[in-house]
Structure formats: C-alpha cells, structure tokens
C-alpha cells in the first residue's frame, strides 16, 4: 500500500469503467501518478478501508489527501489543474459550461447506462434486445439533443472535455460490444440512424488516445461475454 507522500498522486483502481474515467483525466492533464490495483474479488484490506471506508474503487490520494467517488475525483483534478477539460467556474461562460457538463454526465449515468447492464444480465437474448432498445431510446431522448453541436467532442470542443472523459468509458465499451457482435448489428444500425450525433461522438471519443490508452478491448469484451453466458444459462438464478 502506498504511503501518504506530499506532492504525489496515487490512484487506487481496478481495471473497470469507473476507474477508466480517471485515467482519461490524468492522461489529458499529463499528470504522473502511481497506481495501486485493488482486488475486488476478495474482501478489502483494512488498510484500504482506511482510505475508502465504503471499500469502493476508485480512490485518489493527492498530496496526502484522500478523495473518493470518481466524478468528484475527476472534478477535483480538473479544478486543481486548469486545462481544456473545463473552464474555471469564474471564467466567462464557466459556470454555464459546468452546468451543461454535469447535466450530460448525469443523464448518461442515470437515464441510459443501466440498460447496458440489464442487457448483460438478461436471462434470454430476446430480453437482452429489449434492453438495448431501451438504451437507444434513452440516447435518442436524453443524449442526442445534447450532442448536436459536438465537434467532435462535447459542447463543440475539438479537445476532450470533462463531459467526454466521464462518459467515454461507456461509449468505448458499447462500440466494442457492437464490433464483436455481442450486441446484434441491427441494433447498431438503429442507433446510427436514430442518434447520428451520439454515434459520431461515440466513435470520436472511442478513438481518442487518452481513452484507448488503457482500454484492453479483448479482455473487456471477453469479460462481458462471460457475464452474458452466465446470465443466459438456464439454471441461472440472476
Ligand atoms: N459511485 C462510485 C461507484 C464506485 C463503485 O461502485 N465501484 C465498484 C467497482 S465498479 C466497487 O468498488 N465495487 C466493489 C464492491 O462493491 O465491493 C464512484 O463513481 O466512484
């Protein structure tokens, strides 16, 4: 376990969606950091529970201060290191940009993403399809209008913003599942037709080096395939 040393960033992570957000932000900010992988397959060590009493990952140690919750960590890093990710709140347009970013990220996580998880956990392929259809509906209603001006990133930016960094891990996973045929291709066609701005945005963020940097496509797709197989097996209790 890393010690609390001043002027140092330690990211306690596991290789999943939520930690991916912070890799993107740290990469965009060009900040060196140490990473400590937390094994979620076993009970958390007491030393980690001292860092994050909830036992969740990610957590950040920044100059000896502990910060938890990925979105809060991301906002903190962006505030502590002003950059293209987000305007300072007191800069012209800054407060409004932050409100727009927060709304987009909230809509993505609260109205759309759950459908991808319920697709994975569905008991049958047919049921799974209904969850992807619900995902597409959520995208059309909630996200498409917010991405009309993406160029190619959120809010017309040609560089990744905090909005992109906090949501790209979901976009790249969705596209990987399409690419591998885990989600039927007719649903990708449907998404492209009904939500062209979202689709173009997803392609753009998924190709960005800060997003692809730590993304192990095959491992991620294989993981989801395993989860799907387990959920669809006839004796599954889930
Ligand atoms: N809202 C938290 C969610 C963190 C979270 O749920 N992390 C999961 C991994 S995806 C975790 O640590 N799970 C371990 C457990 O529940 O024991 C955040 O954004 O940081």
TrEMBL record:
Please report the name of this protein according to its UniProt entry.
Glutathione S-transferase
Matching entries from InterPro entries are given as:
Glutathione-S-Trfase_C-like (IPR010987), Glutathione-S-Trfase_C_sf (IPR036282), Glutathione_S-Trfase (IPR040079), Glutathione_S-Trfase_N (IPR004045), GST_Omega/HSP26 (IPR050983), Thioredoxin-like_sf (IPR036249)
Note the PROSITE patterns from the entry: GST_CTER, GST_NTER
- Gene3D superfamilies this protein is in? 1.20.1050.10, Glutaredoxin (3.40.30.10)
**What's in the GO CC field?**
cytoplasm
Q: Which residues form the signal peptide?
A: none
The similarity annotation says: Belongs to the GST superfamily.
Q: Which Pfam families match?
A: GST_N_3 (PF13417)
The GST N-terminal domain covers 6-85
Superkingdom of the source species: Eukaryota
Query: Which residue range or ranges hold the GST C-terminal domain?
Result: 94-232
